[in-house]
Amino acid sequence: MSATDYLVTIGLEVHCQIKTATKMFCSCRAGFGYEPNTNVCPTCLGMPGALPVLNEHAIERTILAGLLLGCRIPEVSKWDRKNYFYPDMPKNYQTSQLDLPLCIGGGVPLYEWSFPANAKPQSTQDGIVRRVRLDHIHLEEDAAKLTHFAGYSLVDYNRGGSPLMEIVSAPDIHTPDEAYAYLKSLQQIMVCAGISNADMEKGEMRCDVNVSLRPRSQEKLGSKIEMKNINSMSAARRALIYEIRRQAEELDAGIAQVQSTRRWDDSLGESIVMRTKENAHDYRYHTCPDLIPVHTAPLVQRAQEEVPELPDARRKRLMEAYGLPSADATTLVSDTSLCAFFEDLVREGAPARKAANWVLNTLTATLAEKGISASDCPLTPAALAELIGLVEQGVLSTSQAREVLDSMWVHPELSAQVAADSLGYKKADAGELEAMVDAVLAENEDMVQLVREGNAKLVNALTGKVMKAANPKPNPKLVTELILARIKNEPATRVS
Ligand SMILES: [Zn+2]
Known about the structure:
The protein is of the alpha+beta class and about 500 residues long. It has 16 helices and 16 strands. The chain is elongated.
C-alpha cells in the first residue's frame, strides 16, 4: 500500500502567547527583549508561600478568541496543576486547565487564501474551504526559556509565567496542506483581533502536531505520533509529509506504530524518536488550591463588545472598498498596524492603489530595515499622503519621492513639500523648464538628429543634461516628456 491507501488523521495543538502587559499570575512585565531573569518575582519563581493573582485581561482575551472561533464559553472555568519536574518550571507544576477550560468546541475556518501558494484549493463560493473542529481552548502559564549549549544549558525565567493560550483541534485535519492553512487562518485571526502577535519565528505561536494512519477498512484511529514545538507553518507541512510517508512505509512492512513523541529536525528533513508518549495521568493533574474558579459571564459580556472584523471580512472589504488585488489585501490583513496605516493614508486623501503600493513596497521595506512595525513609524499617514500627492502632481519622480521619504524619516517634523524643497526638488515653472529644454536641444542638435533617426536611448542623455542644468530639480519624467514633445512636434520649425 502507499500513503494514499491509508486514512490520515491530524490534530494540532497550538500555543499562542497572549499580548498582555503583565504575566498570568503576578505583576511582572510580560514580553521580549529584556535582560534575562530581570522580570521575575517570588510568584513566578515558585518561592514557597507566594500566591498567584489572576490576570483578568488574559482570561478575557482567551474568551474573545473563543467567541471568534464559535466556541461555547462555560459559565464556570477552573484551574488545575499539571505536575512535572523540569528546570523551565521552578514550581514543579504548571498552572493549566484540564476538564473545565475557558472555551469548548468551535472551529477554525480554512480560508481559500490560507493554503500554500502551490496547493490552492478549487475556488469556493464564500472563500471558506471548510471548518476544522476544535476540541477546546484553555489558558495556562508559559514555561521559562531554555537555551542548550554543548555541555550546559541556560535558563531565562522572564518568559516563565506569561499567559499562554492552548488551542486544541479535534482530530479533524486530513492533509499537510490543511494543517498549513489551519495555522495560517488561526494566526491571522489572532493578529486581526489583537490577541497575539502570533509570530512563529519569535515563538509567539508554537505548534505540536500529531498524526496517525489507519487502513481505510479500519474504524479505530491508529497510534498517534506527536512532534512538538514546530516553529513555522512550512516546517509543520514538511514534517507531516515526511511522517505520513514514514508511517505508511513502516505499516506496509508490517511494523506496528507505537504512540510516541518524535522530534522534527527541519534541517535534516527527518523526525527522530524521543520517547514513548506519556498520558495525562502521568502528570497527576489536580485542582489548583490557590485559585478560585472563574465565573465567566461578566468577561464574556466585555469580550462581546470587542469582537472585531475577521480576516476574511477585512480582506473582502479591502478588495471591494479600495479595489485592491487579492494578494495586496491578503498581505495587509496579516499585519494589523500596516493595514491601519494604509486605511489612514487613504482617509488622508491618497489614491487607494497608489497608497497600497507605497505601503507594501517602500514603507514595508523601510520599516523592515529599521526593525520596527507600522505602529511605531515616525512618519504620519498625513505626511505620506502629502508626499504621494506630490508624485501624483508630477512635482516629484518616484525615486525623488523615496529620497524625500528618507529625509522625512529623520526629520518627521518636516512636511513633504518642505522636505522636497530642502533637497532642491521643486515643481519647475513651466515656462522656465521649456526654455531650459529648448536651450539644451539647441546646444545638442546632433543628438536631437540621432533621436529623430530612431536612437531612443539618447533621450535619457538629453534628460540628464537638463537635470544637471536645472536648479531646483524638476521631475525627470516630466523633462523627458517635454523633450520628446519638442522633438516630435517641432522639427519643421526648428530645422527650417
Ligand atoms: Zn513574577
